[in-house]
Amino acid sequence: MQKIIAALDGLKFSESTTNYAIQMAKQLNAHLVGVFMDDLTYHSYKIYDLIHSESDVLEAIVERSEAEDKERRESGTRLFEQACRSAGINYSIHHDRNIAIHELLHESVYADLLVIDRKETLTHYDEEPPTRFVRDLLANVECPVLMVSKYFKQIKKNILLYDGEPSSVFAIKMFSYMFPTLADIETEVLTIKPNHQTLHVPDNRLMKEFMKRHFHDATYTILKGLPDIEIVNHLKNRNQGELIVLGAYRRGMVSRWFRPSMADVLMQELNSPLFIAHK
């Protein structure tokens, strides 16, 4: 049995994160841990909105706001428990009350998969993905991550991003090892090559030999151009239900300085869940 952790903000409970985590736990017969990031420095109220209040008024406002936060966090916990019980899965709950990013990274050392909303900020503010919190998480996480969007969709197709580099093969390996049941659904291997190269799959014989033993009915799509442009153009405006698998998509050093990572681009441009695994 594997262990999945769902990272949840108790003040902004994510049904989508919960539903994706439960779906994965059911497929894997895994144990699901709801990690509620109850960082003691994180509140629903903004301190600077209170600075002009009288001391007795300020104390009353803070006391009322903290009571509301407590109830909201307890409500999120109840919703998670109810969903897990309805699904009939094994689960437990952790309340991490120290610095959220540090606690979550520590939890990831002992997990097989982490599920989180791509727009998670753990602040009062909305940010366009990738948020600062998600960037810090992806840079240091110790297990594969499933980044999900606001709305849950059943997974009907795998999109495996492959550029011939070990990092992309590693991500595909991890995905196949973790989700053998998803090997039977429609799978597309997507490769983007420079304009001057041929339309052959990189390491064609080895890759197809590997794929036959993991995703036997996979199809291959090879396009030419810039990866962050061609991948988005190929995948946008398609039917929902696609899951995208990626490691670190190859890019030259100068290009990395001036352009965001492939994961950043996909989080900004597409709503599909992203399975991200890097060594």
Describe the structure.
The protein is α/β, with parallel strands linked by helices. The chain contains nine helices and ten strands. The protein folds into two domains: 3-148, Rossmann fold (3-Layer(aba) Sandwich), CATH 3.40.50; 157-276, Rossmann fold (3-Layer(aba) Sandwich), CATH 3.40.50. It has helices at 15-28, 55-87, 100-108, 132-140, 166-178, 204-212, 227-235, 253-258, 262-269; strands spanning 3-8, 31-37, 91-96, 113-117, 145-148, 157-161, 186-193, 219-224, 242-246, 274-276. Strands 3-2-1-4-5-10-9-6-7-8 form a ten-stranded mixed beta sheet, sandwiched between helices. Helix 1 packs parallel to helix 2. It is elongated.
Question: Which labels suit this protein?
Answer:
2 domains; 279 residues; Rossmann fold; alpha/beta; ten-stranded mixed β-sheet
Would you kindly provide a brief summary of this structure?
The chain is α/β, with parallel strands linked by helices and 279 residues long. The chain contains nine helices and ten strands. α1 runs parallel beside α2.
Radius of gyration: 21 Å
C-alpha geometry: elongated
Report the uncertain regions: 249-259
Quickly count the domains.
2
- Helix tally? 9
- Determine and state the CATH class of the largest domain: Alpha Beta
Number of strands: 10
CATH superfamily of the largest domain: HUPs
With strands numbered from the N-terminus, the spatial order across the biggest sheet is 3-2-1-4-5-10-9-6-7-8
Structural class comes to: alpha/beta
- Work out the helicity level: 25-40%
Instruction: Kindly report the average pLDDT value.
Output: 88
